[in-house]
Amino acid sequence: MPPSVTVIIAAYNAQDTLARAARSALSEPETAEVIIVDDASQDDTCGVARNLAREDARVRLIPLEDNQGPANARNRALEAATADYVAVLDSDDVFLPGRLARLLTSVDADMVADNIAFVAPENLDMLIEQDWIDITPEFTPLGAAAFVRGNLQARGVARSELGFLKPVMARAFLARHGLRYDSELRLGEDYDLYVRMLLAGARLKLTRYPGYAAVVRPGSLSAEHGTVELSHLRDRLAAHLQTNGLSPDLAHAMRAHLKEVERKRDHRAFLDLRRKRGAGAALRYLFEVLDRPLPVMLQIARDKLGLTVSAGEAAPARGARLLLPTEGQGSVQLR
Fold it and tell me: What is the distance between the terminal CA atoms of the chain, rounded to a whole angstrom?
């Protein structure tokens, strides 16, 4: 039997986009099931999911009574998954046609990922019809150190972007190593799971051929993570560094990533304190640690100059921006 895929959709207040997302997965012949976890939505997300289940027997709904965040929602779906592979699809995004068939040609890997095209909602239809004839779907291995380095700060964005990848993951590997999303994380939960998979010996392969469309809207939640979320992510990155047997290259990349997240946490904490308790409390926090003031002040300056647009928010007004640039081009015109 050819390999099959469980597509996992954690949905919260997604009544307007859920059907489009689910149908993009259902149109793939390799999709054995689509598990929608409604994370206690306040709109008609559950109703949309039930309609989809009536239309296609492959759709299963798991409603949650309390909002638990995407990590917990995905874990519930992982527990219910039955296919050979699992693939995460955000409720406002879509799979591009033929995605799963391409990814499953590289079944000698435990994680197989493709390029992401960031696109504004009004350009999504054109993106779906894009032929990408100039891009060869070749797969190359990506090790743990290179993956971590791919999340370090890059010029013009708040951070680089490999944590945005949406790989197809071997369910047997996750089960064998007891791996799940960290339920405390509401920021970087994908990145954390991928790193722990790589540390457990997972083989990751990557292609620059686009297969996933990430729809970018103004006011994205990715810009609103606060001190608590950043602190939890910081703790997870510190835990990665405690793994035995890290290569010097990997440890160096992990320390650099940890430092970046600590700087972002300090910046966010300074702003939160200034807003809630006034300038005096914020300044006391700023000067508690010798090397804290300069990075925070530099971050504030970059924000004011518009130099730190979040990678997940950046999409051109026309066309699409690729996660992995091809031939040096990060943006493409759609035709």
Answer: 37
Q: Write the DSSP string, 216-269.
A: --TT-GGG---HHHHHHHHHHHHHHTT-TT--HHHHHHHHHHHHHHHHHHHHHH
Q: Would residue 245 be called left, alpha or beta, if left means φ above 0 and alpha means ψ between -120 and 50 degrees? A: left
- Domain ranges across the chain: 1-92, 223-305
Query: What count of other Cβ atoms lies within 10 Å of the Cβ of residue 279?
Result: 10
pLDDT tens digits, one per residue of 19-60: 999 999 999 999 999 999 999 999 999 999 999 999 999 999
CA-derived radius of gyration, the chain? 20
In CATH terms, the fold of domain 1-92 is Spore Coat Polysaccharide Biosynthesis Protein SpsA; Chain A (3.90.550)
Dist CA 311 CA 305 (whole Å): 16
Q: Which two tokens stand for residue 159?
A: 């951070």
Copy the structure tokens of residue 85.
């592979």
Q: CB–CB of 108/213 below 8 Å?
A: no
**pTM across the whole model:** 0.91
